[in-house]
Amino acid sequence: MKKEELIVKNSTEIALETYEMVLENSFISMTAKPGQFLHLLIHGHTLRRPISIASVDRDKNTVTILFKINGSGTKHLADYQIGSVINALGPAGNGFTLEPESSTILLIGGGIGVPPLYNLGKKLVDNQKKIISILGFQTKDYVFYEQEFKQLGETHIVTNDGSYGSQGFVTDVIGSIADFDTYYSCGPLPMLRAVSKELVHKNGYISLEERMGCGVGACFACVIPTDHNGGYRKICKDGPVFHHQEVNL
Amino acid sequence: MKKEELIVKNSTEIALETYEMVLENSFISMTAKPGQFLHLLIHGHTLRRPISIASVDRDKNTVTILFKINGSGTKHLADYQIGSVINALGPAGNGFTLEPESSTILLIGGGIGVPPLYNLGKKLVDNQKKIISILGFQTKDYVFYEQEFKQLGETHIVTNDGSYGSQGFVTDVIGSIADFDTYYSCGPLPMLRAVSKELVHKNGYISLEERMGCGVGACFACVIPTDHNGGYRKICKDGPVFHHQEVNL
Amino acid sequence: MNSLQVELPGLNLKNPVMPASGCFGFGREYSEFYDLNKLGAIIMKAATGEARFGNHTPRVAETASGMLNAIGLQNPGVESIIEHEVSFLRDYQTPVIANIAGSSLEEYEHVAHSFNETDHVAALELNISCPNVKEGGIQFGTDPVMAARVTDRVKQASNLPVYVKLSPNVSDITAMAKAVESAGADGLSMINTLTGMQIHLPSRKPLLANKTGGLSGPAIKPVAIRMIYEVRQHVSIPIIGMGGITTAEDVLEFLLAGANAVAIGTANFQNPFVCPEIIDALPETLKRYGFSSVQEVVGKGILT
Amino acid sequence: MNSLQVELPGLNLKNPVMPASGCFGFGREYSEFYDLNKLGAIIMKAATGEARFGNHTPRVAETASGMLNAIGLQNPGVESIIEHEVSFLRDYQTPVIANIAGSSLEEYEHVAHSFNETDHVAALELNISCPNVKEGGIQFGTDPVMAARVTDRVKQASNLPVYVKLSPNVSDITAMAKAVESAGADGLSMINTLTGMQIHLPSRKPLLANKTGGLSGPAIKPVAIRMIYEVRQHVSIPIIGMGGITTAEDVLEFLLAGANAVAIGTANFQNPFVCPEIIDALPETLKRYGFSSVQEVVGKGILT
Ligand SMILES: Cc1cc2nc3c(=O)[nH]c(=O)nc-3n(C[C@H](O)[C@H](O)[C@H](O)COP(=O)(O)OP(=O)(O)OC[C@H]3O[C@@H](n4cnc5c(N)ncnc54)[C@H](O)[C@@H]3O)c2cc1C
Ligand SMILES: Cc1cc2nc3c(=O)[nH]c(=O)nc-3n(C[C@H](O)[C@H](O)[C@H](O)COP(=O)(O)OP(=O)(O)OC[C@H]3O[C@@H](n4cnc5c(N)ncnc54)[C@H](O)[C@@H]3O)c2cc1C
Ligand SMILES: Cc1cc2nc3c(=O)[nH]c(=O)nc-3n(C[C@H](O)[C@H](O)[C@H](O)COP(=O)(O)O)c2cc1C
Ligand SMILES: Cc1cc2nc3c(=O)[nH]c(=O)nc-3n(C[C@H](O)[C@H](O)[C@H](O)COP(=O)(O)O)c2cc1C
Ligand code: FES
Ligand code: FES
Fold it and tell me: For residue B24, which of B86, B94, B67, B90 has the smallest C-alpha distance?
């Protein structure tokens, strides 16, 4: 991880309140692994904002992030113009553990938890894995990257209100997936809880979110318990990806 | 006075750390009088910054301000690009009292106190007055608007270190000015004190600076005593221009 | 009933938003920007027994997301305020709250009593938190016993409801609140400014002529929210909340913490229209967060 | 002598800049960004007798020019800190200050005593200002008598110089400072965080799981400067100043107010290189304002 300056090469609203931003920086693009994030300094804000790396283009020295307007920081980020420079710590965190033995992989993403799975999916396809994706969104207006995931493999879209794809939650689709070796999931905590409960006997990894201070492991803001005896991991440094049995959700 | 949005039409560094900025707004340009100021909202700052109106172009709906980088606010202001929008309260304050009987007028400006005198000088020339100007600056690098003032009349430049014009203070030149009816002065407090002492028997007006809160007369931040019995004026509302006998410097 | 309406002792407010004392003068200047009838109420600048000139300048300084002020209670004295300022405000259908200050119990009593004579002042805001307000060396604003004493005396001198304005510069804000409630306060105003200082590097001296000043603005909002949240659980009189409000969302945060109405100070300097703009934004903001009235929000953020 | 050098009880600092407790862990993470030998000293995260998990999450929130934290003293316990963390820091030529906390006098004594056994800890910072640190319901951090008592006990248990870290959440900071000075404190650290709160509108609840948290960052700088300025005039022991420092100019402001050295907390999160960058900027900054050494600046801003 380093402190780097990234140049905004492109910024597009790809779904309701959801932006895709392409950032140029050779160190980040050369070193980023799926599941890692950038800790972005947004002008006028005390704390940095963690945003996952959604894809990498090593030829162009760029990484892509996808973010949803959530509060003042992401709102300001959406205002950044092409050519602006953004300071980031990264690539931060551990990223997804790849398991060479698994051949069919299930990706389960919810809302703004979808982006890191795209970067992972691309990598897994490069490694000759079969990918099945289940992506959940609030409503049709929030759906993004459907085509991108379809290019990786079988993709199921779920919306809470049924305005697009099937109606319900990602867990409603999981049962219908014939067979897979490993799952990777990222999304809101209630979804991750449901997923890891549903797939308790499966091998899987989940990517977690928590409010962060330092983003580097120094401040203990982002801990998650691993047991009831005070055991813990830091999401920013030991995560954001954990084996589903490693942490207590 | 209104709250208005002004568009930056131009911004140039015209002397060391000194910027000339042209701002477009029809209400401000139509109503501004010499000596009035704009109370500018600069992004990221709690308090507005008072800056004098240095000239007005009613044909182009613009006003010009001149400012020196003093601290963080003026530094940010210098970063504003052409096309940016600046929010201002204005035109604020009373402006200079014009005296129809006076025929020869002495303008005495020090450093960043020079700008409001330019607007005044142009107006006085329009009113057929004879103008003599004495402008003091720290060093040669800080000199600005010499040509502009020369077009209004006889102009003396003084620098503290003698690197341009004559060496010394504006008061060193005042004695050599043959005759005038009224003086108008703006500049640092020590200069205004010296000027009003030197010209105690003359008719004159001085423009004052003070740190401001509201800029509209409501907060009592910017008062100046008028006597020793608690009498006072508010610089933002009753000033910034006062008759030299009206206030206790 | 209007969704913004709030009923407090002596105050029937059409909305919960009022300019804070000292940040709005006596309303004249802002009446040139908008109709003062829009406001829930107006809190006037502090009144003392006699005219005061206040501190030397500079009196204000900017800080990160805030400002320091040391005006020093400059005001024309209570008689002049009643004659020239309250009479001006009489033309508006907006309740007026008189902020009163003094250097002794007697001065407080005198000022409080003076407002009995006038109509159109609906309540008093008792400013015990100004740093230069002390008697026998003890500040009224930081000692519960002294605070109770001045509250009691002012209550006796006045026929108006009394809102006691608390200082945040204390170890135990709840003790202060309880003390003035027991002494008869009809309501609380909180918070006044935190005492702060800035040193000017070029001159190597404190920037404010008074050395210290009161810190206000968004910087102090978390302290205000915490104190209101804490006090709300221990007193039953209403609270006018203030400290760093700049948006309708901030107003909601104060109401959730337990404020019944709010005052806006420093933000007026940045945006003279901030009060009417917040008032206009409130109905939509209430709705967005699932509320149908101001009344309904009060204290809803308190976890028990 | 180097113009940045500072001599304090037990601490021979090559420069006056150190990361503040809790904002730098035990140095490991930042050692990946730069050489820790650059720092004047390192103040470790609080140590308690046993390992503590701390509060539930969320533990941090952003505020205007500041942040709230309620970590809750999470740490692996004093034994583990000595074994794993101090041993790591032993590889650097930078003095280490151990921040110690506890819930009882006995715990403080135990933690203080434990650090006697190790070399490479040069001083203790006695954290009496954590909100959950109290005994018999009274907070050590807001009661001068309790503060003196814990200072005295820790002094007796330890063979290291003790810097007592003061809470700003008090009516009279000078009384606190004098009390711990009389009890034998070798120095002061000030200020710790102001207690604050944020309410999350969508959930209508305090955002932090702990409800309240400590406010830090530029927002509180004016309060820190005021308190140091005030205390400097009444105690003679050195002060490590902190609260909102982000630039070398800020360091100068703290020194002018009377701090002998400074600590930097929140700013590390924005810029992991803030400490070395400030250290590099200091000589030029001193010169720009007419000073030739750090030593020369201390207390120069005080008007008497
Ligand atoms: C490892 C990680 C990866 C993430 N990846 C993405 C991504 O790819 N795309 C995306 O849109 N979002 C992502 N998030 C969530 C994103 O960080 C928040 O939406 C964002 O920080 C909100 O900032 P704000 O200023 O808009 O909201 P505000 O609520 O104004 O933020 C206030 C504070 O809370 C923090 N905060 C608020 N919500 C969250 C949250 N959900 N998680 C962590 N901190 C939060 C902010 O960082 C800030 O410190 C990720 C979070 C983590 C921890
Ligand atoms: C009526 C009036 C007219 C002015 N006209 C001009 C002009 O035409 N050109 C120009 O360059 N300057 C002018 N000034 C001075 C200008 O306002 C200050 O230089 C500017 O506010 C400094 O802001 P800063 O953020 O750069 O400095 P900082 O020191 O960072 O500002 C901190 C605070 O102090 C205030 N402040 C600092 N210096 C002054 C000062 N000298 N006067 C008033 N407030 C100050 C700021 O407004 C701000 O609130 C005028 C001042 C007044 C009162
Ligand atoms: C310039 C200024 C003057 C003030 N004068 C008074 C006053 O006279 N009486 C008083 O009770 N409070 C006074 N205050 C405090 C405010 O009323 C308010 O309590 C405080 O500023 C916090 O609110 P804010 O952050 O919205 O400004 C003053 C504040 C400022 C900024
Ligand atoms: C996340 C965080 C954790 C902290 N933990 C401690 C601690 O363990 N012990 C302590 O004495 N102070 C702790 N503090 C307070 C800081 O050391 C410092 O006193 C305070 O943050 C003010 O400085 P700043 O504004 O530069 O951050 C902590 C502050 C933060 C922001
Ligand atoms: S955010 Fe600081 S430890 Fe994770
Ligand atoms: S700045 Fe508020 S009265 Fe002049």
Answer: B86
Residues 6 or more apart from A166 whose CB is under 8 A from it? A156, A157, A158, A159, A172, A173
A44/A79 Cα distance (integer angstroms):
13
Query: Which other chains touch chain C, taking contact as 3+ CB pairs less than 8 Å apart?
Result: B, D
The total number of residues written for chain C in this structure: 304
Over residues B126-160, the pLDDT tens digits come to 999 999 999 999 999 999 999 999 999 999 999 99
What is the C-alpha to C-alpha distance for residues D138 and D110, in angstroms, rounded to an integer?
20
Phi-psi region of A182 (alpha: psi -120 to 50; beta: other; left: phi over 0): beta
**Beta-strand pair C239-242/C261-264:** parallel
Tell me the DSSP string of B28-44: HHHH--TT-EEEEE-TT
- With CB atoms and an 8 Å threshold, state whether C300 touches D215: no
Distance CA D266, CA D246 (A): 8
CB of B205 within 8 A of CB of B185?
A: yes
Q: How far is CA A108 from CA A132, A140, A158, A229, D236, in A?
A: 9, 18, 11, 30, 63
Please name the residues in contact with D169: beta carbons below 8 A apart, sequence gap of 6 or more: C171, D129, D141, D142, D194, D195
* Strand-strand pairing, D123-127 and D60-63: unpaired
Numbered residues of chain D with Cβ closer than 8 Å to any chain C Cβ: 63-66, 68, 142, 169-172, 194-199, 201-202, 204-206, 211-213, 215, 217-223, 225-226, 229, 244, 249, 252-253, 256-257, 289, 300-301, 303
At a CB cut-off of 8 Å and minimum separation 6, what does A226 contact?
A: A232, A233, A246, A247, A248
CB D267 within 8 A of CB D246: yes
Closest-lying ligand 4 atom to the alpha carbon of residue D217? 25
Torsion of CA C137, C140, C144, C145, to 10 degrees: 70
* Ligand with an atom nearest the CA of residue B44: 2
Six token digits for residue D26: 């035990």
Residue type, A223: V
Say whether C223 and D196 touch across the interface (CB within 8 A).
Answer: yes
Each residue's pLDDT tens digit, D19-78: 999 999 999 999 999 999 999 999 999 999 999 999 999 999 999 999 999 999 999 999
D65, D250 Cβ separation under 8 angstroms: no
List Cα–Cα distances, D245 to A78, B150, C45, C271, D265, in angstroms: 29, 48, 34, 28, 8
User: Residues A101, A181: contact at Cβ < 8 Å?
Assistant: yes
Q: What is the atom index within ligand 6 of the atom nearest the CA of B237? A: 4
Lowest mean pLDDT among B206-220, C134-148, C235-249: C134-148
Tokens of A80: 């950044």
How far apart, in whole angstroms, are the C-alpha atoms of residue C81 and residue C118?
11
Beta strands in chain D (DSSP E): 6-8, 11-13, 17-19, 42-43, 60-63, 66-69, 96-100, 123-127, 134-135, 138-139, 162-165, 187-190, 194-197, 199-200, 205-206, 212-216, 239-242, 261-264
Helix, strand, coil shares of chain C, percent, nearest 5, are: 35, 20, 45
Q: Which ligand is nearest to the CA of C19?
A: 3
Q: Counting runs of H as helices and runs of E as strands, what totals does chain C give? A: 11, 18
Residues with CB under 6 A from ligand 2: B 37, 47, 49-52, 65-68, 70-74, 112, 115, 209-211, 240; C 62
Cα gap B213→C23, rounded to integer Å: 9
Give the number of other Cβ atoms within 10 Å of residue A31's Cβ. Answer: 14
